[in-house]
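Entry 14. Ran structure prediction on the chain below.
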Amino acid sequence: WLGLRCASRVVARTRATLPQGDVRVTSRDANVAGAFRLRRAGAVRGRPVLLVDDVFTSGSTMRECARVLRAGGAGAVVGLTACDARG
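Output, structure tokens:
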């Protein structure tokens, strides 16, 4: 209809992390640093990406995934979340 492609599972988690809202997480950025990798660079190389996540807590997960996508050659990366946990 709009000519958009959906490429799911392009970013994969490389290690388990605590939930971002967990009280044991002292740095949300550190909690997710290096926790993702690009599985299919060809799916994003040179293309704009809409990164979708369920909950926005601090933005750390979204920023880390966007960093991985941009490092893999993605064009503009825009984030969209369904819920904002900051209240």
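The helical segments are 28-32, 60-71. Will compare against last week's run tomorrow.
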